[in-house]
């Protein structure tokens, strides 16, 4: 497999994503392959333009400008799945949900739930550690207007399917937003789980029980931690805390002190 100037394996087509994801046996290799993906020309052009032009407040920083891999240990019992990296958040910092208001919300909530050692995530190397949870996005590149196309979502699906399949202790998936909810059903099927028919509609607090190769799995729906939701009060901290509290309960973790 060819590598780019930074040593990341390069994948250039949807078929290549399928092949590359299927052959991965551990999360570190998966993260490297995700980081070198160039399978969606529109997203590649956008993420790299943002990284080159930059926002004025970050003009002295070097942007990541690549697909953003997941974060969290291989023994995670909970996965949190969002939409896509923000142009000046994950696309800048190289860490999922890091460097923007959405990250401020989700990592503070993970800390309150006892799943993170600190309530903030500002940059790689800031000391953040997650326990029992893996955080990822449905689409790994920052999209224009925060809106990936269905084709881009489908191209990226094999990365997430393989990521979930590499979590043998996974018991709960918290899905942030309707886009992630829609994207997750084919991902779960590819990861060895049996989705119900008809597929349940997304809603905040909804629970769906599944069966799969590694045992039972529960999906929990939550409104996305976007500024549109948090600024308007559609999603509040108690609402998000309740979903994560339920996730830790289902995963068998003790309640935080």
UniProtKB/TrEMBL annotation:
Residues 69-244 form the Uracil-DNA glycosylase-like domain. Keywords: 4Fe-4S, DNA damage, DNA repair, Hydrolase, Iron, Iron-sulfur, Metal-binding. It comes from the Bacteria. One of its GO terms (molecular function) is uracil DNA N-glycosylase activity. SUPFAM superfamilies: Uracil-DNA glycosylase-like (SSF52141). Pfam families: UDG. One of its GO terms (biological process) is base-excision repair. PANTHER family: TYPE-5 URACIL-DNA GLYCOSYLASE (PTHR33693). Belongs to the uracil-DNA glycosylase (UDG) superfamily. Type 5 (UDGb) family. This is Type-5 uracil-DNA glycosylase. It comes from Blastococcus colisei.
């Amino acid at each position: 497999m060819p590598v780019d100037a930074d040593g990341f394996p390069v994948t250039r087509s949807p078929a290549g994503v399928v092949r590359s994801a299927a052959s991965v046996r551990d999360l570190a290799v998966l993260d490297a392959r995700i980081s070198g993906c160039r399978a969606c020309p529109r997203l590649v052009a956008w993420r790299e333009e943002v990284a080159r032009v930059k926002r004025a407040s970050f003009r002295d920083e070097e942007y990541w400008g690549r697909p953003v891999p997941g974060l969290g240990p291989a023994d995670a019992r909970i996965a949190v799945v969002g939409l896509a990296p923000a142009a000046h958040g994950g696309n800048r910092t190289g860490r999922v949900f890091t460097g923007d208001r959405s990250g401020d919300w989700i990592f503070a909530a993970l800390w309150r739930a006892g799943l993170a050692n600190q309530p903030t995530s500002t940059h790689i190397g800031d000391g953040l550690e997650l326990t029992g949870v893996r955080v990822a996005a449905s689409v790994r590149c920052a999209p224009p207007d925060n809106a990936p196309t269905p084709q881009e979502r489908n191209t990226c699906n094999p990365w997430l399917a393989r990521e979930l399949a590499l979590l043998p202790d996974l018991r709960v998936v918290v899905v942030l937003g309707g886009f992630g909810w829609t994207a997750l059903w084919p991902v779960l099927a590819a990861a060895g789980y049996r989705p119900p028919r008809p597929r349940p509609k997304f809603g905040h607090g909804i629970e769906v029980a599944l069966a799969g190769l590694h045992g039972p799995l529960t999906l929990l729906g939550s409104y996305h931690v976007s500024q549109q939701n948090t600024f308007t009060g559609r999603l509040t901290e108690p609402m998000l805390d309740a979903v994560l509290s339920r996730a830790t309960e289902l995963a068998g973790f003790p309640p935080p002190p």
